[in-house]
Specification:
Blueprint (H helix, E strand, L loop, with lengths): L3 H25 L8 H6 L4 H29 L4 H23 L3 H26 L1
Keywords: Membrane, Transmembrane, Transmembrane helix
Subcellular location: Membrane
Main location: membrane
């Protein structure tokens, strides 16, 4: 049985995903320069580093609506099972999104992005419906 603990663990994982992708970017590029991290990334020509950096930025963008959806759904009494299932699905799709980004699979990346987005929007819609 899924609990709110599941959703909260998913929040933690989603919050940490950007740092996973930036670690991949740093490990894939030329020798990392901590004195100028943004300049360093801008100078990279390794496709894996560039893609991982893009996945890093997109993971930050995706986190806010997901977090708002989980918290709003919980606050408005949405069934725990729905919150947990949508949270798990979101995290799976976001991990796949980053992996497909790095693997240079644009169609699969876009599909994973869209499915993760649907999960976040579903949480927000369920919260709004439960609040009325």
């Amino acid at each position: 049985m899924l609990t709110m603990s599941t959703a909260y663990w998913c929040l933690l994982i989603a919050a940490l995903l950007p740092y996973l992708w930036t670690a991949v970017a740093k490990a894939s590029g030329q020798r990392y320069d901590n004195r100028d991290p943004r300049g360093w990334q801008a100078r990279q020509d390794n496709p894996r580093s560039i893609a991982a950096s893009a996945a890093h930025l997109n993971a930050f963008e995706a986190f806010a609506p997901f977090a708002a959806g989980v918290i709003g759904a919980r606050m408005n009494g949405v069934a725990t099972e729905w919150i947990a299932v949508l949270s798990l699905a979101f995290v799976v799709f976001r991990v796949l999104h980053g992996a497909f980004y790095i693997a240079r699979k644009p169609a699969l990346r876009s599909l994973a992005w869209a499915l993760g987005f649907v999960c976040a929007v579903a949480l927000l819609v369920l919260a709004a419906l439960a609040a009325t």
